[in-house]
Amino acid sequence: MRMNNKGFVVEGAIVIGILASLVTVVLWKPITSTLGIGNQPQKQQSTIIKKTEAKPVMYYKDEKGNEHVAMATSSYESNVEASEDRVMTLWQKFKVFIIAIVALCIAFPSFGIWLYTKLRQAQANFKQVVTGIEEAKLAMPKESVDILKTQLSRKMDSTAKTAVKNTVSKLP
Hints:
This protein is α+β, with helices and mostly antiparallel strands. Among the domains are: 43-84, no CATH class; 108-169. The chain is built from 5 helices and 4 strands, in the order H-E-E-E-E-H-H-H-H. Helix 2 packs across helix 3 (109-139). The mean pLDDT is 76.
């Protein structure tokens, strides 16, 4: 087996690429249909239009003196079929976005490393913000601290509250 200058076995990398391609080709349909993002049939809409026209009734007499109706109410139905493309929901778009990000991280490991460092930076910034708020609370009067806690509690959901509690508990 040959090794390239990165230390990877060339044949192993080729085999992994071929296996990944085969798995993608074979399992693409089940995966996309499970996630709800696959090739979906077009939505067929059938609309029945029922129209009724009312015209004034007019009678006429023939030579024998019998009355006949000249105009009367008429009704008809028409069937209109229209096809619409399915619109992806926000959740389906989010799943496609996550799949694309994961695929990019696998295809380009440097992108994955960059994304991971950005996530770590965001976590560090979050810790700095929480630390700053906790230090500011110590310098504030008790009434202001209560108002701040109330306002922050209204704005945060349960996961954000849990993240703040975890960060506060780890502070020195």
